[in-house]
Every structure is written in C-alpha cells, then in structure tokens.
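About this split. The held-out portion is used to measure sequence recovery: a designer receives only the structure tokens and must propose an amino acid at every position. Recovery is the fraction of positions where the proposal matches the reference. Here is one held-out target exactly as it appears in the evaluation file.
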C-alpha cells in the first residue's frame, strides 16, 4: 500500500503549484504589455468564447426548466449570449471598439460621481475620493479623444495588467507559503531531534526498573 504524503509535503506542493501558475501569469502579462494589439484581440476572442459557452449552458438549463416560469427568461438570455458571442468572435476589432467606448463612458461617469460626491459630502476620505474621481475623468477623456485608435491597446493593456497583478499575487502567496511550511517543518525536525535523547533515556530507565528485583 502506497504511503500517504505528509501534510507538510502536500502543502508545499500546493504552494509550489500556485507559485508556478503565478509565474506563468506574470510572463503572460509582460508579453501582453509588449504586444498590446495581440493581447486585445486575444482577450476579445476569449470573451466571445466565454459568451458562447455561457449561452450554451444557459440554453441547456432553460430546456431543463421548460416546465417552469424560468424557461422564457433563460432562453432569451441564452440567445442573447450566443448572438453576442458570435459577433465578438467573428468581429473582435469592432467589439473591442464598442467595449472601449463603454469603458471610457464608465470611467467618465464614475469620475463625475466621485468628484461631485466628494465635493458635496466632504467626508474623511475627501482628498482620496477627489483624486480617484479626477483620475477616472482624465482616463476616460484620454481614451475618448483617441477613439477608435485607442481600442487597439486599451483592452489589451487592462487585460495584461490584470494578468500581471494576479500573477504577482499568486507568486507571492506561493513563495511565502512554501517558506512558512519549510520553517514549520524545520522547527518540528529540531524539536524531534531535541526530544529524541530524552525519550531513549526514559525508555532505558523504564527497562531498568522492570528488570530490578522486587
């Protein structure tokens, strides 16, 4: 029968897997930042396939629920996902332009709300909220002024930065976790070595007592 790996070894392997995955994501993020146009098209195609898969899953779920009131709502949502997925996969550049416009409007709207809210409320986070709002307004205006040319690099930049920061987080967790597990294992090994002579002495003393005449 195969022996089960110790818990420390399993934890170490798990954290090692996280570290490797984080390194892969960091590398992908750096490559995406270098080739931003390719990253934009790749992210849009992945988004389109996710819409297609989500539409198929939603359609199957709607068919399974055809005897309930959920059927028509689920069928309509699934059909919309399928249609959007087909459009995004077949025309990723056009979809990137539309999504870039939506992102710019979202930045502008969020920036306006933050600036106005911070000016009206003037809470303890007034300065930080004002800076966030101004940054959102500036980013939205920069994207809109260069649109539709900005659609070639905005989505790819955001996608690559998300991969980079997620990878750095996983890499930090993996390396830190392996280091902590190694420190715990070393401490246990030192405690075991320190307690081994005492155990042997106690065992010998007990055997001597058992052999002594009553």
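Reference sequence for scoring:
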């Amino acid at each position: 029968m195969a022996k089960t790996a110790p818990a420390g070894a399993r934890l170490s392997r798990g954290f090692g897997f996280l570290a490797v995955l984080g390194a892969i994501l960091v590398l992908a993020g750096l490559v995406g930042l270098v080739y931003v146009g390719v990253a934009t098209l790749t992210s849009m195609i992945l988004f389109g396939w996710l819409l297609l898969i989500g539409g198929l899953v939603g359609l199957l779920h709607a068919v399974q629920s055809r005897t309930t009131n959920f059927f028509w709502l689920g069928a309509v949502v699934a059909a919309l996902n399928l249609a959007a997925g087909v459009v995004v996969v077949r025309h990723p550049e056009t979809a990137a332009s539309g999504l870039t416009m939506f992102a710019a409007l979202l930045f502008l709207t969020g920036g306006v709300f933050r600036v106005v809210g911070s000016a009206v409320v003037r809470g303890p986070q007034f300065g930080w909220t004002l800076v966030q709002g101004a940054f959102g307004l500036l980013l939205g205006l920069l994207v809109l002024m260069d649109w539709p040319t900005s659609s070639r690099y905005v989505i790819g930049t955001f996608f690559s930065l998300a991969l980079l920061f997620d990878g750095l987080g996983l890499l930090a967790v993996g390396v830190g976790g392996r280091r902590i597990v190694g420190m715990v294992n070393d401490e246990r090994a030192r405690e075991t070595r320190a307690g081994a002579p005492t155990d042997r002495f106690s065992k010998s003393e007990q055997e001597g007592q058992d052999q002594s005449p009553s």
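Annotator remark: The chain is about 85% helix and 0% strand.
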